[in-house]
Amino acid sequence: MKASLDYILLIVGLMALVDYALAQQANLHTAPPLADDEAHFNSSLEAILVPRVVGSRGHQQVRNYLVNSLKSLGFQTEVDEFKERVPILGEVTFANVIGYINPQAQNYLALACHYDSKYFAEDPGFVGATDSAVPCAMLLNTAKTLNSYLAQQFRNRNDLGLMLIFFDGEEAFRDWSRTDSVYGSRHLARKYSQMPNPFATAQGRSSRHIDRIEVLVLLDLIGARNPKFASFFENTSGLHTSLVQIEQTLRASGQLEGNNKMFLNRPAGGFTDDDHRPFLEENVPVLHLIATPFPTQWHTPNDNAANLHWPSIRNFNRIFRNFVYQYMTRHSVPVDLRFRHK
Ligand SMILES: *[C@@H]1O[C@H](CO)[C@@H](O)[C@H](O)[C@H]1NC(C)=O
Ligand SMILES: *[C@@H]1O[C@H](CO)[C@@H](O)[C@H](O)[C@H]1NC(C)=O
Ligand SMILES: [Zn+2]
């Protein structure tokens, strides 16, 4: 019984992948409801692009900004606050910020980034533009540009909700290790795996809130010139392929700038440790959108506004917005990309 149900869910997942692979390219565009709003992107980035080491004033300001932005975009917000002792700084207060549209839905599409900036004793002005102010501004901008759709057709759907997750404490305080890194994501994955799923009684549904996440899409290290994104996980390669196709279609219709092809139709090979690790360990499918190789300014004082590459940022925003829109408009039944259940 269990096995055959898994099998059915797998088939549904595969059908969804095929559907993505055979994507009709019809409604891809940058016209309403998918038009750019770069003024909004810029003001979001400006608000986030400050030193925001956990426990600092900038950190508190950005945290408040994220909550207020989510509320004004119609999201129900959750702040997952906790205290923990960390190397160098001692006890600090972390806070993951989460926004939900359709919190009552059976499943969710989760989009994530981290909003803390790395602590450097010798560089208190470090702003982490690509790491990850730009990815966080991209998530807010995706919600802003899709807002009329999210507020109308998408609103009150029961099959799918949208989660935006702004993780805190991704950065190591001393040296990256399993324990000195991804503080916020470890806390949230634990919390969501212990929270019950109200749909658990329905046949075949998991008993854990965390399993309502169909896929966690994690953005990191974006905003530098000519980024390249390959596919890290087989179970989300269909979604990665749809990004490749959306980029192709937008380029063919003259809606992208320059000629860098950022989404590569190939496996990344290897694993890059990041906020997705605790979710992956709880069996959540992950689409990891991290530029590899990393931007040359990574973890240096040059990871700032002056070294951002605007055509790449605008292109990413356009492709990503179409991807999210496609996921939502094509979704009707639960998508299960898990190879096996625990
Ligand atoms: C956003 O900021 C970039 C970089 O400063 C600038 O080139 C662009 O014109 C700005 N866009 C808007 C709409 O203000
Ligand atoms: C997805 O596939 C990767 C291997 O590509 C595996 O490590 C991971 O556990 C899989 N996750 C799920 C949820 O199936
Ligand atoms: Zn970093």
From TrEMBL:
Single annotated GO MF: glutaminyl-peptide cyclotransferase activity
Residues in Peptidase M28 domain copies: 96-324
The keyword Secreted is assigned to this record: yes
Claim: Transferase is one of the keywords in the record: yes
Keywords for this protein: Acyltransferase, Disulfide bond, Metal-binding, Secreted, Signal, Transferase, Zinc
Signal peptide: 1-23
SUPFAM superfamilies per UniProt: Zn-dependent exopeptidases
One Pfam family recorded for the sequence: Peptidase_M28
Annotated InterPro entries: M28_QC (IPR037457), Peptidase_M28 (IPR007484), QC/QCL (IPR040234)
CDD domains linked to this entry: M28_QC_like
The reaction(s) this protein catalyses: N-terminal L-glutaminyl-[peptide] = N-terminal 5-oxo-L-prolyl-[peptide] + NH4(+)
Compartments reported by the entry: Secreted
GO cellular component, as recorded: extracellular region
Domain of life: Eukaryota
Function: Acts as a glutaminyl-peptide cyclotransferase. Responsible for the biosynthesis of pyroglutamyl peptides. Might be more efficient in the conversion of tri and tetrapeptides in vitro. Might have a relative preference for substrates containing hydrophobic amino acids in vitro.
Protein name, UniProt field: Glutaminyl-peptide cyclotransferase
Native source species: Drosophila mojavensis
